[in-house]
Design brief:
Layout (H helix, E strand, L loop, with lengths): L5 H10 L7 E5 L2 E11 L2 E8 L17 H6 L2 E5 L3 H11 L1 H8 L4 E5 L2 E2 L2 H11 L3 E4 L1 H6 L1
Antiparallel strand pairs: 1-2, 1-7, 2-3, 3-6, 4-5
Helix pairs in contact: 3-4
Length: 144
């Protein structure tokens, strides 16, 4: 079981503070590329590629399970199915019991995102979901 040292994680974080400066990791045989990119006008985020690509199918659940790449590398986000205003409106129209049974007003929606907004959660997720994490140096990437 080989994980990155504290110093190596700090090096990864420092390199990800610069735009378009990729960091290469080897996580349980997957070649993961992390890059700081602009996601909209005022926000930057860490985008990732597995084996050099990103596939849209990683964002979809199949048979109530996430694919291996999504589970290992992508952040899971949840949000309420209905806003408070919508819940009140459904309760007013259908009653509390029917609104809960028919519309699942207390339910949540979950999905995967294509980027990480912060380095700390990315690090914790990678450590929790991968047995081995190795930093690939620039010399190793040019020879591969």
């Amino acid at each position: 079981m080989s994980k990155l040292t504290k110093q190596q994680w700090q090096e990864v974080e420092e390199r990800l503070k610069q735009f378009f400066s990729p960091v290469y990791l080897n996580c349980d045989g997957y070649k993961v590329t992390l890059v700081l990119e602009r996601v909209d006008q005022f926000n930057n985020a860490i985008r990732l590629y597995v084996d050099g690509v990103f596939r849209g199918k990683w964002l979809l659940k199949k048979d109530d399970a996430w694919c291996e790449e999504a589970r290992r590398f992508l952040p899971l986000r949840t949000k309420a199915r209905y806003s408070e205003k919508e819940k009140k409106q459904l309760i007013r129209v259908f009653g509390k019991k029917d609104a809960r049974e028919k519309f699942n007003i207390d339910g949540r929606i979950e999905g995967r995102q294509i980027f990480w907004k912060a380095f700390g959660p990315l690090k914790r997720h990678f450590i929790a979901n991968n047995e081995t994490i190795e930093l690939v140096t620039d010399e190793q990437t040019t020879t591969s």
